[in-house]
Amino acid sequence: MFQPEYEKRLLGQCLSGPSFPDERLIPQRAGNTWSRNFALNEKVDPKRGNCRRAAAQEDKRNTLYACLLRNEFLGSEIASLDACKTNDKYRCDVGDYKERENTRLYTYRQPREPSHQPFAAVNLASQRLLSMPIRPTRKLSRLPYKILDAPELQDDFYLNLIDWSSTNMLGVGLGCSVYLWSANNGQVTRLCDLSNEDNPVTGVSWHESGRKLALGTFSGYVSIWDASRQKLITKFEGHSARVGCLAWNCNCLASGSRDGTILVRDTRASPSTQAVRSMKGHTQEVCGLGWSLGGQYLASGGNDRRVLIWSNQSNDPLHRFEKHKAAVKALSWSPHKRGLLATGGGTSDRCLRFWNAHTGQLVQCIDSGSQISNLAWAPESQELVTTHGVGQPQLIVWRYPSLKQVVRLSGHSHRVVYLAVSPDGESIVTGAGDETLRFWSVFTKRQPQKAGDSVLALNYDMR
């Protein structure tokens, strides 16, 4: 047994006393960036992630159910889930009881308005509560889910060397060759090799069918290839310099060149009898092209800091946007609102701008903080992603029209110069001067709601 003096000293020792030199110091490493710096993929159990999402969704349904009970039985008027606090969502309205206890029998007062409509199962507040959709919990990974090597991928801001087809095939221009990577099985196929011509590929663009791939070359000609048979279909000439951007509109193909011209061809006609539409409006290289929804307008961006809007009725530009202070390669039409065009400027500009192509007016503008090299809209939501050059971050997902940043991502060791969106609208692929392709999950796909998922899914069953 302990001696009485030692036991007294031991029991009387203060727990919050000074630390002793033999105590260990455990460093805090929660905020490290090792996984990003060394491209370490964190192992995540998909079943555990699904359970967490299901638990969060079930909690929201329980909250909704508690609010409905308070509305129907306690006389509350909760019309939104925000009004029902998390720590108070199952608590009764004590104030209503006190009000009823203090009410005299023969005291006259203004009667309450009837809360129920004729033949309505629930009151007005509950109807508004049920009509509000429950947003699912969203969690975006800050790491790419796949990384592919891309040797000889050019670090050139003015080129467009990757594109994702509707058949889930990725086309990549590497040096003088074009490779096809299947996202379904990971198979890699070389489509063509122009090394015997010493003619690097400078632009790639898939037809909407996913069967034909258009290529722009350094020498200035455009070729169209059959992706399934790896055979050349046709070849067009007309540009005197490299072709860095291509854009399909059904069977019409637009090409932009360093010579400052834009040529639009009907690819069904033979090159000898083909009617070529030539549009001249840029004084320097054309580095961005995009057709609007329905093919009514063609937008072009150039190194002359101009954005031009062309119509099908004239070879002269319909609108000239000259607000940018640097080259404009990044441009994309909104798939949700007709006539809305988003453009991004280079290093000296850094601004993300939105234009109304019908009126020619600037709608919104925000400084992104760095060079904008590409941008693309989400097919299923009011969001868009921008890729950036020197600086951090390298990818930003924006919510439109609030222009709030959803997430900021980084991973490449060089500036991001290429971008493509997957056909399902959930993933994107980025290419950089570090000769890698990185795949990111940044967008959400609109899922159809199934009736009767749960007894507590009242917002879908009780309508």
TrEMBL record:
Residue stretches of each WD repeat: 194-235, 236-275, 279-320, 409-450
A GO CC term attached to the entry: anaphase-promoting complex
Gene3D superfamilies the record matches: YVTN repeat-like/Quinoprotein amine dehydrogenase (2.130.10.10)
One annotated GO molecular function: anaphase-promoting complex binding
Biological processes annotated in GO: anaphase-promoting complex-dependent catabolic process; positive regulation of anaphase-promoting complex-dependent catabolic process
Keywords annotated in UniProt: Cell cycle, Repeat, WD repeat
Annotated CDC20/Fizzy WD40 domain residues: 148-440
Leader sequence segment: none
Highest taxon listed in the record's lineage: Eukaryota
Pfam family of the protein (one): WD40_CDC20-Fz
Entries under InterPro entries matching the protein: Cdc20/Fizzy (IPR033010), WD40/YVTN_repeat-like_dom_sf (IPR015943), WD40_CDC20-Fz (IPR056150), WD40_repeat_dom_sf (IPR036322), WD40_rpt (IPR001680)
Protein family (similarity comment): Belongs to the WD repeat CDC20/Fizzy family.
Name the UniProt record assigns to this protein: Fizzy-related protein homolog
